[in-house]
Amino acid sequence: MGAPVTIALDAMGGDHGPSVVIPAAAIVAIRHPEARFLIVGDGARVEPELRAHPALAAKTEFIHTDIAVAMDAKPSQALRKGRWKSSMWLALETVRDGRADAAVSAGNTGALVAMAKFCLKTIAGIDRPAIAAIWPTIESECIVLDVGANVGADSRQLVEFALMGAAMARALFGVERPSVGLLNIGVEEVKGLDEIRKAAAVLKDAPLPIRYHGFVEGDDVGRGAVDVVVTDGFTGNIALKTAEGTAKQIAEYLRAAMGRSLLARIGAVLAQGAFRALKEKMDPRQLNGGIFLGLNGIVVKSHGGTDATGFASAVDLAYDMASNGVVKHLANDVAGFHAKLELEGAA
Amino acid sequence: MGAPVTIALDAMGGDHGPSVVIPAAAIVAIRHPEARFLIVGDGARVEPELRAHPALAAKTEFIHTDIAVAMDAKPSQALRKGRWKSSMWLALETVRDGRADAAVSAGNTGALVAMAKFCLKTIAGIDRPAIAAIWPTIESECIVLDVGANVGADSRQLVEFALMGAAMARALFGVERPSVGLLNIGVEEVKGLDEIRKAAAVLKDAPLPIRYHGFVEGDDVGRGAVDVVVTDGFTGNIALKTAEGTAKQIAEYLRAAMGRSLLARIGAVLAQGAFRALKEKMDPRQLNGGIFLGLNGIVVKSHGGTDATGFASAVDLAYDMASNGVVKHLANDVAGFHAKLELEGAA
User: Fold this and answer.
1) CA A235 to chain centre
2) Which of A207, B34, B278, B308 could form a disulfide with B24, with the two C-beta atoms 3.0–4.6 Å apart?
3) Is residue B160 assigned to a domain?
4) Cα separations (Å) of A9 from A79, A120, A315?
5) Together in a domain, A136 and A108
6) B99 with B204, same domain?
7) Is the alpha carbon torsion for B122, B125, B127, B128 positive or negative?
């Protein structure tokens, strides 16, 4: 571990603002005593919260602004009104200027994508950033991207997503050559959209630091068939929300089934330790955070409606990504990929 | 109920062929005593099974062919080799010729789509057929289409899918004006792919026998937000398989959690009635069957790997669709829609 990691927090994002963000930061400050914080928001609301958490306050620099991006603002609107001065922008700016290693916001996703692109710019050699999600699998976890930064993706972008996802898997899971699959509607080579088949042709032969697995289908994601699942932002977003919806639905069935008879209720009481373990496994707060990949800096988007536990796990993610130097590794991978392609082209 | 319903069965489709198809038909013959069957396949394998089920055999006409479509044949190949003579084709042909009211096959999906289109032709006014799935929701069920007949869909096709899904919902759920949602990555009007937004503009104002709900997201499907969810075949297929994968994954978690401690195991035993109810609710065999909509006839595709219980539920579905006259209703709706559009155009 090198220099202390500093995380910038947009205190005004999300449904609850500072009343969630500050307690979350306090949780992370205990889990990672060497972390530093840069908290941006409205002093009238942030400072009382900070006073309630003196240990956090001692390792926090506070930046005041009374401008916040509305949760329902359109990206273009947010960019026009909130640039240079909103809490979201100022948090990103500290990353751009090297004062912070990563930024976390629970604000408006579209606005955050637009501002982050504008403020941090994409890494050289990367066309468009993507949002990656950590997806629980039967055995452990995998990374799925893009889950909503873009609508659609061409073959070149899909290949870039593969590179970005692999860099993240290397940092978070410690796998040297992460396995990568392209999400498709069948595993045969002839299946699916043209752009996906073109991306497959590139990934199969390219000199990349990945193990290309081939096509994967919707049910392979949760099975943990690969470390990284690559898809366009439209499909990825729908798959992610469908999985979340199905998990909620089954929890609902389980609750109903367990309340149905006296025996079932007694059984449920005896098995409550097991249910707690199951609940924890299915708790979306444990894996809260979409990571923006492909920018010159780390940005994590937390769910807007989450609580302090959930926001803290988004901050943890930013911390892990920053202390593993994901952006530097990714920039190297991309440069190496393009250099090799050029060499091959020249040969 | 009018004339008895006759269901044509491709006995050679699926991983198990007649050893699943015939016992399944025997189950349906008990559930629907007025049903008749037309079973197509290789006599050497079908006839011994039929002899074991004399009550079924009494209401079955058997058609022999020793040609079957391979599970891994490409659609074009299957069409070239299996047309006119394979068990899949002959089953479809009985529907075309009015000898059967619906056909069921557990064979190769791509081949079945290609043959069904070629044999039955699309209903006048419908551009492309779609595969509809019945999706369990917290309260009951909804219909999702297209789940894989096509890759991609333009706005006109999406509108046609809405009409087809609504006709099916009317037949199966008995709702006069089914609610219809377009699957998208956000509920705001500005979100998503162009074709989806164009379809929304048509659905909002068109004189259709539906209640247009607006956009729905991935987690709205299982919540039961609408009766019919419309999407293109690529997204729909991935959403469906993702939901199936998530359900399996959670069942796995539950099994692991319940075996973890003695108390949990005792609890699980006491609650086993509840678990059985849950298992039934989550049993994919209960809702086995993709329905091809938009053709001049009813075709149901069963999962290839299912057992007799699963195949029987696909046959039940075909029976319900046939006895409700879905094809006739759908043809009327489409004709009505086009007539109104023309009237409006002329006005």
Assistant:
1) 16
2) B308
3) yes
4) 18, 16, 8
5) no
6) no
7) negative
* Residue where the block lists tokens 């035993």: B269
Measured between beta carbons, the chain B residues lying within 8 angstroms of A190 are 74
* Residue B111 and residue B18 share a domain: yes
Q: How far apart are CA B87 and CA B12, in angstroms?
A: 7
Better-scored residue on pLDDT, B273 or B318: B318
Q: Are residues B306 and B268 in the same domain?
A: no
In a shared domain, residues A207 and A248: yes
Domain assignment present for B330 = no
User: Which residue is it, tokens 């989550």?
Assistant: B282
**HEC sequence for A50-90:** HHHCHHHHCCEEEEECCCCCCCCCCHHHHHHHHCCCCHHHH
Q: Which domain holds residue A50?
A: 1-126+294-347
Q: Is A179 helix (H, G, I), strand (E, B) or coil?
A: strand
Inter-residue contact B341 to B347 (CB < 8 Å):
no
Closest CA to B38 of B326, B318, B324: B318
B44 close contact with A: CB closer than 8 A: no
* The pLDDT of residue A210: 92
Q: Return the number of CB contacts < 8 Å for A and B.
A: 197
Interface ipTM above 0.90 = no
pLDDT for position A78 = 85
Taking only the tens place, the pLDDT of each residue in A249-293 is 888 888 887 777 787 788 777 777 777 777 777 666 666 779 999
Chain A interface includes B305 (CB < 8 A): no
Domain contains B342: no
Question: Residue A78 corresponds to which tokens in the numbers above?
Answer: 């947010």
Alpha helices in chain A (DSSP H): 18-31, 43-52, 54-57, 75-82, 87-96, 109-120, 155-173, 194-205, 218-223, 233-258, 262-270, 272-282, 308-323, 326-346
Ramachandran assignment for A121, one of left (phi > 0), alpha (psi -120 to 50 degrees), beta (any other): left
Task: Give the CATH number of the domain where residue B90 resides.
Answer: 3.40.718.10
Tell me how long chain B is.
Answer: 347
What does the alpha-carbon distance between residue A338 and residue A202 come to, in Å, rounded to a whole number? 13
State how far the Cα of B236 lies from the Cα of B151, in Å rounded to an integer: 10
DSSP-derived secondary structure letter, A193? -
Q: Do A261 and A143 share a domain, yes or no?
A: yes
Task: For B40-81, write each residue's pLDDT tens digit.
Answer: 999 999 999 999 999 999 999 999 999 999 888 888 888 888
Angle subtended at Cα B155 by Cα B151 and Cα B158, rounded to the nearest 5 degrees: 65
pTM score, whole prediction: 0.89
B319 shares a domain with B259: no
| Inside any domain, residue B332 | no
Average predicted confidence (pLDDT) for chain B: 89
The closest alpha carbon to B304, from B6, B38, B21, belongs to B21
Do the Cβ atoms of B110 and B76 come closer than 8 Å?
Answer: no
- Whether the CB-CB separation of A224 and A140 falls below 8 Å is answered with yes
Interior angle at CA B182, CA B172 and CA B104, nearest 5: 35
pLDDT tens track for B137-169: 988 899 999 998 888 899 999 999 999 999 999
Chain centroid to CA A206: how far?
A: 26
If one counts the domains in chain B, the total is: 2
Cis amide prior to A320 (ω within 30 degrees): no
Among residues A108, A201, A97, A209, the alpha carbon closest in space to that of A155 is found at: A201
Same domain, yes or no, for A156 and A117? no
Interface mutation target, options B253, B258, B262, B276, chain A, most CBs of A under 10 Å:
B253
Q: List the structure tokens of A248.
A: 């909620």
* Contact: A271, B268; criterion CB under 8 Å: yes
Question: For residue A277, which residues of chain B lie inside 8 Å, CB to CB?
Answer: 257, 260
Q: How far is A309 from chain B (nearest CA, A)?
A: 22
